Amino acid sequence: MLEIFILAIALSMDAFAVAIGLGAKKNIPGLALKAGLYFGISQALMPFIGYLGGKGVLGWIEAYAHWIAFGLLIFIGAKMIYEGFQEGIEEDITAVTNKMMLILAIATSIDAMAAGFSLTLLDVNPYVACLVIGTTTFVFSWIGVFIGKNSGTWLESKAEIFGGTVLILMGFKILLF
Predict the structure, then answer these.
(1) Helix H segments across 26-64?
(2) How many CB atoms lie within 10 A of CB 91?
(3) What is the pTM of this model?
(4) Contact 49, 113 (CB under 8 A)
(5) pLDDT tens by residue, 80-90
(6) Residue 44 and residue 25: Cα distance in Å, rounded?
(7) Distance between CA 51 and CA 65 in Å, rounded?
């Protein structure tokens, strides 16, 4: 279960970083709840889709599954670290609409779908894992808006770099243990 909490924290860092950016740019009542709901629900659904896809092909690739999960987590982690050093998408946001929040939620959770494949290799209940991932993302996103409102965006890139590093370490754990 500890692995799920670590995975949940790592996967929520993309949404956390975007939420910080949103909070720094916008002062909209209810934005924290809106960000938490959009990002949390999206982050709960995407790993489950990845899990189902992984279960569907696991019989064909079982001998190489740990290498595939390793590769996906390394790729996702490296991408998050790279994005941590780049300018965020929230720089260009002028209006926080439901459509914009949906686009941001999907964009920040695509990585979670790929990481969901690794759930097939862990001895966990996928429903519980996705609930933990979604709840963790909700909390981090909700808090992220307030952090952004109070402190600006200085923590934004650090969150993505941290999340990427944790995913890379999880990839090595799956490969080596």
Answers:
(1) 31-61
(2) 9
(3) 0.81
(4) yes
(5) 888 888 765 54
(6) 26
(7) 12
